[in-house]
Amino acid sequence: MMRLNEQARGVFIIAVTPFTDSGELDLPSTDRLVEFYLERGATGLTVLGMMGEAPKLTASESLTYVEHVIERVAGRVPVVAGASGAGLAPMAELARQMMQAGAAGVMVAPPSHLRSDDQLVNYYTQVGQAIGRDTPFVLQDFPLATSVQIPVQAIVRIVNDNPNCVMLKHEDWPGLEKISALRQAEAEGRMRRISILAGNGGLFLPEELGRGADGAMTGFGYPEMMAGVYAAHTAGDAEKAHDLFDAYLPLARYEQQPGLGLAIRKYVLARRGAISSSAIRLPGAKLSPADIGEIEHLIERQESRLQEMNR
Amino acid sequence: MMRLNEQARGVFIIAVTPFTDSGELDLPSTDRLVEFYLERGATGLTVLGMMGEAPKLTASESLTYVEHVIERVAGRVPVVAGASGAGLAPMAELARQMMQAGAAGVMVAPPSHLRSDDQLVNYYTQVGQAIGRDTPFVLQDFPLATSVQIPVQAIVRIVNDNPNCVMLKHEDWPGLEKISALRQAEAEGRMRRISILAGNGGLFLPEELGRGADGAMTGFGYPEMMAGVYAAHTAGDAEKAHDLFDAYLPLARYEQQPGLGLAIRKYVLARRGAISSSAIRLPGAKLSPADIGEIEHLIERQESRLQEMNR
Amino acid sequence: MMRLNEQARGVFIIAVTPFTDSGELDLPSTDRLVEFYLERGATGLTVLGMMGEAPKLTASESLTYVEHVIERVAGRVPVVAGASGAGLAPMAELARQMMQAGAAGVMVAPPSHLRSDDQLVNYYTQVGQAIGRDTPFVLQDFPLATSVQIPVQAIVRIVNDNPNCVMLKHEDWPGLEKISALRQAEAEGRMRRISILAGNGGLFLPEELGRGADGAMTGFGYPEMMAGVYAAHTAGDAEKAHDLFDAYLPLARYEQQPGLGLAIRKYVLARRGAISSSAIRLPGAKLSPADIGEIEHLIERQESRLQEMNR
Amino acid sequence: MMRLNEQARGVFIIAVTPFTDSGELDLPSTDRLVEFYLERGATGLTVLGMMGEAPKLTASESLTYVEHVIERVAGRVPVVAGASGAGLAPMAELARQMMQAGAAGVMVAPPSHLRSDDQLVNYYTQVGQAIGRDTPFVLQDFPLATSVQIPVQAIVRIVNDNPNCVMLKHEDWPGLEKISALRQAEAEGRMRRISILAGNGGLFLPEELGRGADGAMTGFGYPEMMAGVYAAHTAGDAEKAHDLFDAYLPLARYEQQPGLGLAIRKYVLARRGAISSSAIRLPGAKLSPADIGEIEHLIERQESRLQEMNR
């Protein structure tokens, strides 16, 4: 079985969870979506993340969905499963189920009431033990969504205290200096090397790669942008990475609207044939005709620009 | 089957969930606890509330626990089950399971991101539909815990829009004027009559009853205080209600410390033999020897004062 | 004297407050900055906003600075002054001082504890009276900074209740539908027409103009972007507006990082000669060499792209 | 001139700011209020605190009020002035003015966006320098009002780094263990001895004194409660301290309602003749007839109980 480790690189796509128009889990779309992501360069998948509508699934649906994804992926790339939650007992149960289903690791964001460095460190020590030391975990650092700020010094302690903490999903904002500080802590031997994948819809991906990120773990209707930027950066062609990024930026910016972002992303994925329906489970946002008009306009402009670049 | 309705009165105890020292569900203690609560005047029980460590139970544990409580209660009083959660699909499933197990209704607190009147009204309309119109629900109004303020005008609309909204668990703080305003809205025909039960550990119970509350839905290591205050108030003896309240107030105040309150409550319940262990599942607070010394001192003083009153 | 009214249009720049390296108010730079903004198309200036470091100025410095700006502007464009604050008495005094100095109006954001529609409406009624009905005011709607969400229905009531509420500084996020809803409320006669200027660093300017915004009230190191986008939009050339916007977007996105944004903006303004020093008063962020490298790189790429566009 | 130092003990009353019915500063009432507080056992006064409506005063009113209080006190007890604010420059100016007027020190609460230990430590280092090392300051630790949690470890660092940090206004909640932990840090030589005065309306005063607090710095309509509890505790009579505390607790609990507390306190002070009007400046809460009825009832019961105790 594939286990996530500190060397993970590339683009882990935060997968949406497809539903039918009537709100049922859409497993045929799930198959298409997996292929869509892999064809566009995903080197990993992350399911049951915030953008995967995890809290809107029942326990049995979550398991069904994850098992289906893992079966379809069939070992081609690692699959990480979100396991955040208020209690350690259900988190431990979920983590066990996910790992048994073949997940490569789990991802855990902090509960929103945590504040001090010690509170954070203690919480992740409890997490690291509860899920079992042989279950690798991703520390999700996403203050805009969790209201929790995790300072560099706390991350250093969490990583050093928990051998199964192998990756940071970095979406502090602003956070470029945080990547630099963590890489420096590694360079000075103060912290074990971990994988750092950038979030925030890829809106700072070229700069994050420049600071030492190993790739991205986030979502976007055009995941090939992230794969392309990563490939160009890795090939040493920073300008090409920026050119590609800039071509997608107007739409990426539009998709990054809090609250509305998932509706936009699912609209684009449905438009591209990756899923059958753009349905979101309640509670959730709905696009207006004006929203859709703006998205279509941005896609049209994006396609023109990409054609121009490829001439 | 007993259904919760707008006429509910008395004291619905927010039940703790008993665990063994090693953190397993403690069903024998659950039996004792149910009898303990009923003997001390509970006219209803509420399980899987915030103080019931609901988010720390797995889905199957939740069901096991609620079924066990309902079986033990055996129809003597109604049992309400907490069903708050971020997604409507798992909430609907949980509500269905709880009602099938024999619950009298469910309780739903708002997710923490809701702000405007319209957002609140829309959310509870979705809730009222998702759980099914034949499932009565309690609107939990607890800003200190949820960060959501529900204005009187929004409650009026929620009640009027949802025939299955039959009760308000009132723990806004300060909130005495809110009870008065809701009772006035009823008197003026602007809102259907609902049951209003007071929360906040009973710390304002005499005043809340004076404003028109129908009783309490909250927890305390000495639930007989709430039952006694309610009985005296109902018998028209406000001074006796206050005298009794005052005797318990020093400990009630101490128990109301956020974060620490559940540990204090379970300590007291274990000390009184209602449960075997004061264990709390992680993450959770722990009492220090100094904390315990203070609790013991307060109990001793409380007992003296009660003896004095009864002389 | 020029008074702000409901017909205001164009680009009101949120002016930075220039300091010397040692942290003193820099009045010579203030002169240069005013000219810089006007030359690049500002049709108004807003001083003492959040990005103007208003809370870091003493009362006398605030007055000195505003008087200096207004004197330099010499009636060429209207000047709006921020007057947000926890108490109405000091707000009223500040508003009076600013209007006496020649300001065209004041801007007021809600205090962070407001939640319900009624609380918001009551607060702004108190504000509208306290500053005097002959003092026009701008309602600043900026949830990311204030934690307060102002729903459309509350804005409608605030505008209708307060004749001196003449403008909305729109920076809810996402907020495009909000502009549409407000313009619809006007069209249906439910709300008086007001000026709506878009914020958020201009990151959604083309779409906001398309929804009916009258321009922008925000800051950016290259204010000519906003003026250019506005001009192209007004001339009916949406594609040109987008082309220009896209050319500046990579840097605009970078500057929009919370916490760090002002440091980036002042760096760019100092680099362009608009102010002498990029100094920020404490508490405030500092750019690292890596930050500066990224900014320089983005400026270089921006210049290439603009040259290409102008060929 | 009297300077606040680490040995401060007793009861520092958080003074209200008296206004006339029409909202003007009421200096004659200020004189009466000062005498009222001193006669009831205040060993210090704190002005311009949160309950002193500081943000509702203009800069010149603040100065007038503080100067008037200090002149009236005439050196009988030290006077501490609140100086919290978003910017260091105006804080430094205010601190200078207050110290020149004869204040013994200033009090500073953290701005609400601070989160990590390092952010807190850095902020207070900036504060400690900005106000000048010869200006003693009180660290106000009040998470319920500021949303900022200051862990023990951060307080230890702040105290050790800033020789002018001489006192903690302790109103974390729950916070008894925090006092114990700080006193232990002192005992083990990890932290310089500081004065710790308890807040939260005195609602935990007996326990706080038992944990090592040096007294109280908070407000209540009956400040003699705090002085009496402190005196009994200091005299070694813990039971008498509790008896007195218990007699006042029903009203103290009622006064502690967030948002409404100041209106209750001013009502009681006006009723007792300490101030002429219970007026609060906008924005602020107003008591209803039902509120007043409850207060009067609680006062009546309190007086009976005190008489009974003194028989």
Automatic annotation (TrEMBL), chains A, B, C, D:
* Residues where pyruvate binds: M217
Q: Which domain of life is it from?
A: Bacteria
Pfam families xrefs: DHDPS (PF00701)
Gene Ontology, cellular component aspect: cytosol
Q: Name the InterPro entries for this protein.
A: Aldolase_TIM, DapA-like
Q: What GO terms are given for molecular function?
A: 4-hydroxy-tetrahydrodipicolinate synthase activity
Q: Does the keyword Lyase apply?
A: yes
Q: Which Gene3D superfamilies match?
A: Aldolase class I
Q: Which UniProt keywords apply?
A: Lyase
Q: Which family does it belong to?
A: Belongs to the DapA family.
**What's the name of the protein?**
Dihydrodipicolinate synthase family protein
Q: Could you tell me which species this protein originates from?
A: Stutzerimonas kirkiae
